[in-house]
Amino acid sequence: MIEFFYQEEYSDKFGLILRPVAPILITNRSKSNKFILSTMYIDSGADVTMIPLKAGEVLGFVQDTKKIFHMHGISGSLGCILEKAQLKIGNRLIY
């Protein structure tokens, strides 16, 4: 079982809310030998995990306009590149 905690944040529409977050370790051993330790939002129903562009660059991902696609959500559309990485949450390694 993976345990996480809730972080208090302010929402313009809902006021003070609690968001589930967990410390993670992310790496991309096939393109670099870099590791990033971060705290990320947890969404157990998500199909993908999104990271900022700068974090992707540290991991060795390259921004290639041929690979950009758009994901749509409640706040609109966002250009993304799909890459594989490894996440470690608690003692569990996820590929």
Question: In brief, what are we looking at here?
Answer:
The protein has 95 residues and is mainly β. It contains one helix and seven strands.
Structure description:
- The chain is mainly beta and 95 residues long.
- It has one helix at residues 53-58, and strands at residues 5-11, 15-27, 35-41, 68-73, 76-81, 86-89, 92-94.
- Strands 1, 2, 3, 6 and 7 form a 5-stranded antiparallel sheet that branches. A two-stranded antiparallel ribbon has the order 4-5.
- A hairpin with a 2-residue loop joins strand 4 and strand 5 (76-81).
- The mean pLDDT is 85.
Task: List strands and helices in order, with pairings.
Elements: E1 5-11, E2 15-27, E3 35-41, H1 53-58, E4 68-73, E5 76-81, E6 86-89, E7 92-94
Antiparallel strand pairs: 1-2, 2-3, 2-6, 4-5, 6-7
Low-confidence stretches: none
Report the portion of residues in β strands: over 45%
How far apart the termini lie comes to 17 Å
Largest sheet: 5 strands, antiparallel
The helix-and-strand class reads: mainly beta
Q: What percent of residues adopt helix (DSSP H or I)?
A: under 10%
Shape: globular
The SSE string, one letter per element, is EEEHEEEE
Radius of gyration, in angstroms, nearest whole number: 15 Å
Mean pLDDT over the residues: 85
Number of strands: 7
- Total helix count? 1
